[in-house]
Design a protein that fits this description.
Strand content: 25-35%
Strand order of the largest sheet: 1-2-4-3
Largest sheet: 4 strands, mixed
Number of helices: 2
Low-confidence stretches: none
CATH class: Alpha Beta
CATH architecture: 2-Layer Sandwich
Helix content: 25-40%
Distance between the termini: 23 Å
Radius of gyration: 12 Å
CATH topology: Translation Initiation Factor IF3
Shape: globular
Length: about 80
């Protein structure tokens, strides 16, 4: 079993104004081929549009859990 389990970033506890900057800092700190798990209390689809606008072709996005109370998304760096 690998110890390289992706970190979970639970933004439910992050103040709203800091959520996206925190998420992008976490993504930018990843190495190529690494990922983190975003945990949120709603579907973060607007964030995906922001990723597409600012980091097109550099990320992967996979829903692991889709509500209704918790969303978990694996976000990887290409």
């Amino acid at each position: 079993m690998s110890d390289n389990k992706p970190i979970e970033l639970d933004v439910r506890i992050v103040p709203p104004a800091e959520k996206h900057p925190t998420i992008f800092r976490t993504f930018d700190a990843l190495g190529s081929g690494e990922q983190f798990i975003l945990v949120n209390d709603h579907d973060p689809f607007p964030l995906r549009y922001q990723f597409e606008a600012t980091r097109a072709g550099q990320f992967s996005w996979e829903y692991l859990e889709s509500g209704p109370r918790v969303w978990r998304v694996a976000i990887g760096k290409s």
